[in-house]
Amino acid sequence: MSKKAAEHHRKAAEHHTHAARHHGEAAKHHDSGHHEKVAHHAHTAGGHAHHAREHSEEARKVHMKEHGKK
Length: 70
What we know:
The protein is an all-alpha fold.
């Protein structure tokens, strides 16, 4: 795997980790009734998930460019 594709995979994993942390925070605040904080963390988690998908797509593109059918 190229360094560029590997870096996209690492970035995707980092964003998934951040998204999971924010979902956990949202759940904690939901249990205590702090719904504005729930909304904040859920929204932030969604942003990280979006960026993870973008990096996954870029890794796929790099891989296909290097190893796909011509």
